[in-house]
# Entry
Amino acid sequence: MQINKSDLLDIKSHLINCDAIFEPPLSSYVDIEKYAKKLYENAVRFEIWEAKRLTCLLAVYINKEDKNVFISNISIEKNSQGKGFGKLLLNSLIKSSLTKQCNEILLEVFNNNTKAIHFYYNFGFSKLDECNDKLVLSFKING
# Structure
């Protein structure tokens, strides 16, 4: 597990490799190049590297005022799925959030991304809100 090791090209390449795994595809709702730049410049990134390649990425924004963390991206390349990396990334985020005295982790997920929704519910997230075609999920951090 690394934090903020990646450079802009690593992030962009990873997002392109994961594009079709997103439901709907990531490129259908963001400009991957601009999004990679935004994550590189502004997000805290939890990363898993395999064979010197970024294969798993969890990018978050920390709101110190509201004491919450917003997950902007979680992506795991196809060949790295099913190895427990999603749980490892989220557990690392929780541990880091506790040290920053955050109380809640939030994320948005498209309603039709049933695989991701199932993963988040099994991890302990609960539905906070629903707007348009997305669910807002919350994970309360107990310290």
In short: The first strand starts at residue 2 and ends at 3. Residues 85-99 form the longest helix (15 residues).
